[in-house]
Amino acid sequence: MSQMRQQITEAAEALFADTPDWARLAEAGFPLLLVPEDVGGTGGGIGGDWGDAFAVLRVAGANALPHPLGEAMLAAHLLARADITQPPGLTVIGSGGGQWQGDRFTGWVAAVPWGRDADHVLAAIDTGADDPVMLLLPRPTTVTPGQSPAGEPRDRLDYVATSGLALGNADHSLYGAFLRTAQSSGALDAALTLAIDHVNARIQFGKPLSKLQAVQQSLAVLAQECAATAIAGAAAAQALDRGQGAMEMMAAKLRTNMAIHKGVALAHQVHGAIGFTQDYPLHRLTRRLMGWRSEFGGDRWAELLGAATMLETGQTLWTDITRRSDQ
């Protein structure tokens, strides 16, 4: 566990609750959380680990933070790992396709979080080869606005013979799945808190809703889904800090998707009609959760995780599972 995790988490809780703009987030250094202290430009990064990132992104999810913090954090980490100086302004991540010839890119990057505001995009581009090529791209030729279920920007960026920088063959989908696991864990916890507060305050049939057995059962199941997501995400963070984590990230995203499917429905059920109104804060969490569920691979990790598992059989598979649980 990072020695500074509690301090970082407390700082995030204080700042994110105040709905800061991007300039304040950048000034506080959160986008450089996963960048070592001796790189990343003047003053370097924070030098946090993946456990720190999980803790901070849970706070972001709980506060429905309307900024691409996770995407910027991962982009900065990948650039630092490739020994590339962090460019000025906002850099986010994305995926797309097209042709990379020389140092010129012609193609597209789809559903980029805050693509219209980004100064650079670090994109995994499918060029028809076996592995995507990772490109650092400047502002696009054209932007086609789009949005997530929560109304946040998810824009298509098109490039025509645009100069870029190649980082080699790589993909960030698994890391992106980890980001969404962390954010979803925080948002589910916040939805549970709203649900508990509501049923304790709401009187029905002469007593609080919290006294009804069916409501208690729903809250218990919702709490289980929250706990499962938090544990899966924490296990993935620990594996990443050991230099591993592919299987754990796939499993965590799948378990998170299951929790979102069940948890969002339960949170709205116990709230009744009020949970669907615009002036009640539940929708700020659940709309983001439904969008995050399909991002960075969605449920396709089930197929990939199954394929990876099929490579191991019998005692080998059991040994690998228990080895991971003991670490």
TrEMBL record:
Keyword line: FAD, Flavoprotein, Oxidoreductase
Pfam families, A to Z: Acyl-CoA_dh_1
Identification of the protein by name: Acyl-CoA dehydrogenase
One GO MF term attached to the UniProt entry: acyl-CoA dehydrogenase activity
InterPro entries assigned to the protein according to its UniProt record, in alphabetical order: AcylCo_DH-like_C (IPR036250), AcylCo_DH/oxidase_C (IPR009075), AcylCoA_DH/ox_N_sf (IPR037069)
Residues covered by the Acyl-CoA dehydrogenase/oxidase C-terminal domain: 179-291
Organism: Sandarakinorhabdus glacialis
